Amino acid sequence: MAELKNRRHECFVQEYLLDLNQTQAYLRAGYKVKDAETAGTMASRLMANAKVRARVEELMAERSRRTGVNADRVVRELARLAFVNAPDVIDIASATIREDATKEDTAAIQSVKVKTVNGEEFDSIEREIKLTDKVKALELLGKHLGMFTDKLQVAGGLGVTIHDDIPE
Q1: Is 163 a member of any domain?
Q2: Nearest-angstrom CA–CA distance, 165 and 163
Q3: Are 126 and 115 contacting, i.e. CB atoms less than 8 angstroms apart?
Q4: I need a surface site. Which of 1, 20, 80, 114 has the fewest CB within 10 A?
C-alpha cells in the first residue's frame, strides 16, 4: 500500500476516485483556494506526486479486480455495440426481437416500446426497437485505436546546420 504524506492526500485520492475530476477532488478534500484555475493547477501538481499517483493506481486496480471492469471488457462491449447488425436482432417485418438473436446482439438494444391502440373498427400495435448509437460506439473505438487525433503530428528528418561565422 502506498503511504501518503497526510490524511488530506488520502482524502484527495478517495474523492478523485468518485468522478476522476482532479479539480473537484481537490476542492472536496478541503483544500482552500481563491479560484477554480488555482484549484486545477494545484490538483494537477498533487496528482503528479509519485505517492499520490501510486495510491490512485493501486485503488483503481483493486476496483477493477473487484468489479471485473477493465479496459479489455469495455473495448469488447463497445465493439459489440458498434458492429451489431440490426437484422440479426430485429425481425423487420414484424418489428419484434428475433427469437434467434444472441445475447451479444440483444445487448445493443437501447429500448423497446410497444403501444396498443384499440379502435372502433380495428386494433393496432405499434412497436419500436431502438439500438444503441452505433456511430458513437465506433467513434469511441476509433479514439481508443488512435484513429482520430486532434493533434498534428509532424515528423521529419530535416537537418539543422549552425554557422558560427557571423561577420563583424
Answers
A1: no
A2: 6
A3: yes
A4: 1
- What range does the domain containing 139 cover? 73-144
- Regions of the chain where pLDDT drops below 70: 1-2, 150-168
So what's the pLDDT on residue 151? 66
The rounded distance, in Å, linking the Cα atoms of 74 and 81 is 11
Query: Would you state the pLDDT for residue 147?
Result: 85
pLDDT at site 166: 62
Same structural domain, 101 and 56: no
Read off the C-alpha cell for 24: 473537484
Q: In terms of DSSP bridges, do strands 96-97 and 90-91 run parallel, antiparallel, or are they unpaired? A: antiparallel
Could you tell me how far CA 38 lies from the centroid of its own chain?
26
- 3-state SS of 115-161? EEEECCCCEEEEEEEEECCHHHHHHHHHHHCCCCCCCCCCCCCCCCC
